[in-house]
Structure formats: C-alpha cells, structure tokens
Amino acid sequence: MKFISVAGIKGGVGKTTTAVSIAKILADLNHSVLLIDSDVGLSASYKWLHRNPDYPWGLQVRKWEEVRRQLEQNPKHLQEQGLDYVVMDTRGSEDIEELVTLARQSTLMVLPTKPDGLSVEGLKDTLTPLLQHKVRNFKVLITDSPAHNSDGKDAQDELVAAKLPVFASIIRRTEAVSKAATQGVPIKDARVYKTLKDDNGEYKVDSEGYLIQKSSGRAHNAVNAWLDYQRVVQELVQQLNQTAAHG
Ligand SMILES: Nc1ncnc2c1ncn2[C@@H]1O[C@H](COP(=O)(O)OP(=O)(O)OP(=O)(O)O)[C@@H](O)[C@H]1O
Ligand SMILES: [Mg+2]
C-alpha cells in the first residue's frame, strides 16, 4: 500500500484538486484507491465526491476523523483493506510538527503550489522546516499555471536550480477545474457552458463562445488540466516503483 499525502502550509494552492484528480486517475488505472479527507471545509474532497452520488468514481472516500478512530482500535486497519493507494487531502496548516509527521508516514508527499508570488512564498515556508527535519520524500507540483505568461515554468526552473524535487508536468489553468468541484465530477467530465437566447431559440455555448453540439456540454478545455494530472500520475507511479525496487 502506497500512501500519497497532498499537503502544504498555504491554503488555496490546489491540494484538493490534486488529491481528487490523482485518486481518480489511479482508480481509472484499475488500482484500488482510498481518498482520505482530513479537511472539513466545504471545498474539501469528501464534499466534492458527494455532490454527485451518481457519478461512477470507482474509489472510496472517507473522512480522516473516522479512519483515525478505526486505526486507534486496529493499527492495521488500512493494511487489511487490500488497498493499492491511499491518497490524503489535507488542510493548509501552520502546524510544522504535524506536517513533518505526515511526511514521515507518507510514501510521497505532494506539495502543490500556484506560481504566483504569495503561493511560492508559502511553499518556502513549507519546504524550510521539511528540509530542516531532513525530510526528502516530497515533490513539488506547480498548479493553476496561466497560459499567458511563463510564471509556471519560471517557478519550476527556480526549484530545479535549487535542486528541489519538482514534477515535470505543470498543471495548466483550466476553467473546468472549479466547475468540476461544484458539479461533483472529475475535471475531465466537467461542463462549462452558458445558455444564450435569441429569437430562434436557446443555444449552449462554451466558455469561449463556441456553439456546443447537442447533448455534449463537456468543456473542450477540461482536457488540459486532466492531461497534466495524468502525466503527474505517470511520474508518480514510476518514481514509487523505482523507490520500491531500490528498497
Ligand atoms: N488548474 C487549475 N485551473 C483553474 N483553477 C484551479 C486550478 N487548480 C486549482 N484551481 C482553483 O483554485 C482554488 C483552490 O483550489 P483547491 O481547493 O484545490 O486548493 P486547496 O489547496 O485544497 O485549498 P484549501 O486550502 O482551501 O483546501 C479553487 O477555486 C480551484 O478551482
Ligand atoms: Mg482543499
């Protein structure tokens, strides 16, 4: 069982989006996946998956509080579930001790950051104590990278130059991401459309004003962030298999 935590001190940097997407992509690859939500807020992953109970997620999602209680009764509780992956979504927290403990329990800790100045500053606040505690099993992921500037690539280059582990795949800013959360579906199935009316009737147009074909309201740009997350999972699986092979 591999344990992937998604963490960081700063809020709003894409942790939940990352945890939900990684968990779903692993499940789509026929792995047995449990997504644990240690956040309680409205925007957390437990709520995301429960907004649309009909969607075939193909994975389990549970709240950390409940899992923790079971683990107190039986420390092997998770091992006994026959899981391939446990993915944990966390809340932004300043509690360094908690962060270091979580990292030590993780097979890999993913640290998402947006490429803007404040988020990168927040990332440094996360990295400094981890490095001080000699934690190295983390990997930074640049999320929500806008297409109109090179901020994402610049942030990535800076991390590479500082010899910090960073995913090669950068998650592009994609309108469907926030829709996916409110619609309770993975990014790939989010719908982004507006309805326009004129004398001849009603039309559904996508976020860029193109007419959407009948019945398919799927966001044509939803594929951007989804492809990027698929590449992240490829990197992740490869790295975890290598680590396993080298003991
Ligand atoms: N690739 C992306 N494209 C567009 N918007 C994005 C992208 N990634 C994240 N966002 C948006 O950024 C916001 C924060 O994302 P998310 O909720 O995943 O972050 P978080 O770190 O879990 O936040 P919190 O600290 O509140 O738990 C959301 O509105 C989300 O839709
Ligand atoms: Mg969150």
TrEMBL record:
InterPro entries: CobQ/CobB/MinD/ParA_Nub-bd_dom, DNA_Partitioning_ATPase, P-loop_NTPase
Cited Pfam families: CbiA
Gene3D superfamilies: P-loop containing nucleotide triphosphate hydrolases
Domain CobQ/CobB/MinD/ParA nucleotide binding: 4-187
Official protein name in the record: Chromosome partitioning protein ParA
Origin species: Deinococcus roseus
